[in-house]
Sequence to fold (122 residues):
Amino acid sequence: MECKRADPLLATALWRCNVRIRKGDTVEVISGDDLGARGTIHRMFPREGRVVISGVNLIKRHTRPTGQVKTKAGIIEREAPIDLSKVALVCSSCDRWTRVSYEIMDDGSKVRVCKRCGERME
Ligand SMILES: [Zn+2]
Fold:
């Protein structure tokens, strides 16, 4: 199933559709300039449908040595949020990006399952 963003009001619905990805997960970029790049999710923006991945989608920022926080003058690189539709979860078992499904355990908890190899991901 593909999730498409049709309306900003549907962002929450989109997020639910993609909520298979969580903070701390290892993901791979599956489209765009950073294709194939991998990193860990360290920030999430549910309303925008975007995530920040460590080491991925770096942008250059020009900084000045002003303000209370002592920043160095020059150019620093930092991660910019990337659209959730451009990333996919990486399965730890088969080491490829994958779509996931859920399996309900006996105690009612949900476990993510890799659609490629069928292994549980938790
Ligand atoms: Zn797998």
Remarks:
- The pocket of zinc ion is lined by residues 91, 93-94, 98, 114, 116-117, 119 (CB under 6 Å).
- The chain has one helix and ten strands.
- The longest strand covers residues 38-45.
- The chain has a mean pLDDT of 84.
